[in-house]
Amino acid sequence: MSRNWEDVRKSINEFFATAAEKTDEFIKVGKRKISITEIKRNITSHYAELGGRVYHLIRRGEAAGIASDGEVESLVSRIQKLEDELKAKEIEIEEIRMATEKATKAPVSPVGSAEEREAEVRSEPEGEPEGEPERQEAEGSEPERPDSDEAKPQEPKKD
Questions:
Q1: Position 22 in a domain
Q2: Among 38, 92, 122, 137, whose Cα sits 20 to 30 Å from the Cα of 53?
Q3: DSSP character string of 100-120
Q4: What range does the domain containing 72 cover?
Q5: How many CA atoms lie within 13 A of 118 on its CB side?
Q6: 16 or 135: whose pLDDT is higher?
Q7: Alpha-carbon dihedral of residues 30, 33, 34, 37, nearest 10 degrees?
Q8: For the chain, what percentages of helix, strand and coil (3-state, to nearest 5) are there?
């Protein structure tokens, strides 16, 4: 019986270890997702700024020089850096998830050797197992229903 409690204790410990690892994963991923949101917002802002700059250059008749405009080049460079940061954060999230999956799917070694488990089975007392015995019903028979006529109290007959 003590072996069963050890198994239960070990299962509970494994459950809480997995829960802790998953919680840690959610926190780390959540922080990166917040960073990703901020990066995307910055990219959108730079796109708007770039579009405004290009619009003004076109309106002034300087469309031919858009690619060589210092401000346009600077905005394009910043957008590229932000996109690289975005990809890096997405890779970090994937690595975190893979590491957690690897840690939580680690093979669980069996408790004790086969000989120890056989010895424990042999040492258990024969007869009724501890606790409430399970109710066994014959195959094909229906369980007794409390609403059947047999289970209802009989009313006295009136003459």
A1: yes
A2: 38
A3: HHHHHTPPPPPSS-HHHHHHH
A4: 2-104
A5: 3
A6: 16
A7: -160
A8: 65, 0, 35
- Is residue 14 helix, strand or coil? helix
**88-127 as b/e, with b when 16 or more CB fall inside 10 Å?**
ebeebbeebeeebeeeeeeeeeeeeeeeeeeeeeeeeeee
**Does residue 151 form part of some domain?**
no
| Residue 76 amino acid letter | V
Is 79 inside a domain boundary? Answer: yes
**Cα distance between residue 131 and residue 120, in whole Å:** 18
Nearest to residue 78, comparing CAs of 33, 38, 42?
42
Is residue 6 within 8 A of residue 111, CB to CB? The reply is yes
**Structure confidence by residue, pLDDT tens digits, 40-68:** 999 999 999 999 999 999 999 988 889 99
Q: How many domains does the chain have?
A: 1
Query: Would 113 be classed as within a structural domain?
Result: no
**Measured distance between the N- and C-terminal CA atoms of the chain, rounded to whole angstroms:** 62
pLDDT higher than threshold 50 for residue 37: yes
